[in-house]
């Protein structure tokens, strides 16, 4: 029997159940009675020790990201840490190393350490669901960038479809009539939305896409190099390559240079994230800029709202991206 079962029977959120049973936050007497009756009916006792400890705040927030080696997540963590500092809280950072099992361990550890809440970018769209749901049943939780469905939590990230709309319209304005897409495997929400956005806006703008020119691997420079070799060997070469993140795009630029393919004269290349290295590549990379500071601030605001006992349904906040145009698409 879990706190989620009590929440469903009482027809309230899991956060309300936690507050009603712990007495840590003001909840109306009627709701407290409703929750207690549901708990009694189900025989739910909860974790009394954990509830008692949670009545005293630790002023710490756990954060779990897929990789601290990826500059996008490094930047996001830094912005979250700054936002938490402004809110009077400290960050407890964990890397899941893109491993759902390790991610589950990290989440269990954060719950055991009695952090006040958790901010997480889930590794996998389905394999992460159970662990994220269990953590959300125990603590306030906000998902960022990526998300899993079926979890009672807030989410904030970039509008991936709007991002691909910016990219594809920019390429169409540059006279692009055919394009390839290089991404990671379709294992998380962001990747799935970017692939879908690429196809949708390519079709809308009349940009041709061959099935074999959609290459799925991983978010890494090495995969960008490998994908470039595959694309350049297959022929005919597309007018542009759209990359799902900047690491892939940087590998693409390196491999093109090694093969004597001039970017942007022979091929246009775009990235996604606008990491610091994007402006330093040769040529400098046109890329989608994610509003990291705004994402971090909104994630902390949503978490603080729950910690402050403000009743509200879970929010989904998709922030508008922008396109940073550099030499990799300038003809």
Automatic annotation (TrEMBL):
Keyword field contains Transcription regulation: yes
Pfam families: LacI, Peripla_BP_3
Keyword presence, Transferase: no
HTH lacI-type domain residues: 1-55
Alphabetic keyword roster: DNA-binding, Transcription, Transcription regulation
Protein name, UniProt field: LacI family transcriptional regulator
């Amino acid at each position: 029997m879990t706190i989620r079962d009590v929440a469903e029977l009482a027809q309230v959120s899991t956060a309300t159940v936690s507050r009603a049973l712990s007495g840590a936050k003001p909840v109306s007497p009627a709701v407290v009675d409703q929750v207690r009756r549901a708990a009694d009916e189900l025989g739910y006792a909860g974790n009394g020790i954990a509830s008692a400890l949670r009545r005293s705040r630790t002023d710490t927030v756990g954060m779990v990201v897929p990789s601290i080696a990826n500059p996008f997540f490094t930047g996001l963590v830094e912005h979250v840490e700054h936002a938490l500092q402004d809110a009077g809280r400290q960050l407890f950072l964990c890397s899941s190393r893109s491993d759902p099992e390790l991610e589950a361990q990290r989440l269990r550890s954060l719950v055991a350490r009695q952090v006040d809440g958790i901010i997480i970018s889930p590794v996998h769209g389905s394999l992460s669901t159970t662990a994220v749901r269990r953590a959300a049943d125990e603590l306030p939780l906000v998902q960022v960038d990526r998300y899993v469905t079926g979890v009672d939590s807030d989410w904030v990230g970039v509008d991936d479809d709007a991002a691909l709309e910016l990219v594809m319209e920019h390429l169409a304005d540059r006279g692009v009539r055919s394009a390839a897409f290089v991404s990671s495997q379709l294992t998380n929400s962001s990747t799935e939305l970017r692939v879908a956005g690429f196809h949708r806006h390519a079709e809308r703008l009349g940009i041709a896409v061959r099935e074999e020119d959609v290459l799925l691997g991983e978010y890494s420079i090495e995969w960008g190099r490998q994908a470039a070799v595959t694309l350049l060997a297959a022929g005919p070469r597309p007018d542009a390559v759209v990359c799902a993140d900047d690491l892939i795009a940087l590998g693409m630029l390196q491999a093109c240079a090694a093969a004597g393919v001039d970017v942007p004269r022979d091929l246009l290349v775009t990235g996604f994230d606008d990491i610091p290295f994007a402006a330093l590549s040769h040529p400098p990379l046109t890329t989608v800029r994610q509003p990291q500071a705004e994402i971090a601030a909104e994630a902390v605001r949503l978490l603080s709202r729950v910690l402050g006992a403000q009743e509200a349904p879970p929010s989904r906040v998709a922030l508008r991206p922008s396109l940073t145009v550099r030499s990799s698409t300038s003809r």
